[in-house]
Request: fold
Amino acid sequence: MSIIRLTPSQRRKLRDHLSRVQNASPYRRLLAILELGRGKSVAEVADLLGVTRQSVYNWATAFEACPDATVLDDHYGIGRPRLLNEPLQAMLVACLNAKPEDLGYVPVNWTVPLLQEHLFRHGGRRVSDDTIRRELDRLGYVWKRCRYVLPPDPEREKKTRDSAAVAGPAAA
Reply:
C-alpha cells in the first residue's frame, strides 16, 4: 500500500524537476516520491534506492506537508551564525592598519589576545583566538614569534681553549 497519492499535475512537476536536478540526493528523494506515487511500498522503495525505510517516511512526510518538488532539495546554510561578522571583520582590518599605541594600548605590536580584547571592548563580542588566527590567515597576514638573538660575544676566543673550534668547522 502506498502512503502517497499523486495527481497527474504533481507527477508531471516532479518529473520536470527530476530532469533538472544535478545532485544525487535530491534526485533520490524525488524518485522515492514518484515510486511511492506509483503504488510501491516504503520497503520496496527503500530497497530500490538503498536507503532506510525511515528516510523514505521522512521524505514522504515532508512532501505531504508541502506538496512541492523544491521541498526535497538540499537546503544548506542552516547552522550557527558566524561570530566574526562583517562589522567585526572591518574593525579587525582597521586595527591591523593602525598601531596599538594609536588606539590607547601600551604594547607596540598587535597580538592575538590584544586583538581579542579590542574586538570585545569595541565590538561587543568575544571571538576565539583560533577564529582571529583563521581570519588573519585569510587576510594574508603571517605571524611569527619573536626570537631573541644575543649579540656575539667579542671575547669568545679568549674564553675557549681551542681557537679552531671558535672559527668553526670550515677552519679545521
Observations:
- The longest helix spans residues 24-37.
